[in-house]
Design a protein that fits this description.
Blueprint (H helix, E strand, L loop, with lengths): L1 H20 L18 H5 L13 H4 L10 E9 L5 E11 L2 E17 L5 E21 L2 E15 L5 E15 L4 E10 L3 E3 L2 E3 L4 E10 L2 E10 L5 E9 L4 E9 L3 E11 L2 E9 L5 E10 L1
Antiparallel strand pairs: 1-2, 1-16, 2-3, 3-4, 4-5, 5-6, 6-7, 7-10, 8-9, 10-11, 11-12, 12-13, 13-14, 14-15, 15-16
């Protein structure tokens, strides 16, 4: 009977989530920082992290994955994007009894130029996006875990004499099921919340639903994820992580959302320290580099 209940919950959310996403139609979405990936490991695996458990970054992908966090995890990440833009992120996770908790801070900043109708430069201005996430995950029953996360989102445009800013709140809900052997399956609904208001304009958040899997065999793990959001109908992500030695892992991934992307990277673990790197080509826009340094204590 317990197994039947798990299946019913999983199927129910699978059918309901896409309808929640598209109930108000497609369109321009606010708080774009929610779509900026800050984890080097996730980037190298095609962003398919919805079923990976025990990773502190689960607070951003599927909070149910926090249920197996043990000890104290700290991670600092930096992303070098194109056009002199960049993003830094700080993640911390620990267990409180049988509950895994996590907090994540992301800050994206860049410079842009305001131009007139003829394309002539008027002035430069700064752009800053900030996201703070709080999440927790716990075993609900048997092999079923659940989690939830809250996000505080902020955008600011430094126009000197007339600065513009906006804030919003959003919530994530997730489930994770442990299957046979080393299999995990995850389901998440993210960015549930009211519209973001920028002066008189209102834009909906990029609500997203995903179904994911993670399969471990011997020295490798294969991950995949199918997702849908306001910005696109269906996307697919997948990646493979191979343990070459006790301290070195190779990763390769790809995704298809609005186009095909391939990425790769590696991870080095020594004692309590972990270093991850990912390289993500963005065609004509250049290369994006992501590095993360973490510690478990």
């Amino acid at each position: 009977m317990v197994i039947n209940k798990k299946i019913l919950i999983f199927v129910f959310i699978s059918f309901i989530a896409p309808r929640m996403l598209h109930s108000s139609g497609y369109g321009t979405t606010g708080a774009q920082i929610v779509n900026l990936n800050s984890s080097a490991r996730s980037s190298a695996l095609g962003y398919a992290m919805g079923a990976v458990d025990g990773d502190p970054s689960a607070v951003a992908y599927n909070p149910a994955g926090l249920h197996s966090v043990r000890g104290h995890h700290a991670r600092l990440s930096h992303l070098i994007y194109f056009l002199d833009s960049g993003m830094s992120a700080l993640t911390y996770a620990q267990n409180i009894g049988k509950i895994g908790t996590g907090i994540k801070l992301k800050i994206f900043s860049t410079e842009d130029t305001e131009r007139d109708a003829q394309g002539e430069k008027i002035k430069d201005f700064g752009i800053r996006f900030t996201q703070v996430s709080f999440g927790a995950g716990s075993v609900l029953t048997g092999n079923l875990a659940g989690g939830a996360a809250m996000k505080i989102l902020a955008e600011s445009y430094d126009l000197k004499e007339d600065p513009v800013s906006a804030t919003a709140f959003a919530f994530d809900l997730g489930l994770q099921i442990k299957g046979m052997g080393g299999d995990y399956f995850g389901l998440a609904v993210r960015n549930l919340g009211p519209e973001m208001k920028m002066e008189a304009a209102k834009t909906p958040l990029d609500r997203k639903a995903s179904l994911a899997g993670a399969h471990s065999m011997e020295n490798y793990i294969f991950v995949w994820e199918i997702s849908t959001s306001r910005q696109y109908s269906v996307g697919f992500q997948a990646g493979v992580e191979v343990e070459v030695s006790d301290i070195f892992k190779m990763r390769v991934g790809g995704n298809y959302i609005t186009g095909i992307e391939f990425m790769g990277g590696f991870g080095i673990g020594w004692d309590r320290w972990k270093f991850d790197y990912a390289l993500v080509p963005h065609f004509d826009m250049g290369l994006a580099h992501r590095v993360s340094l973490g510690a478990v204590f």
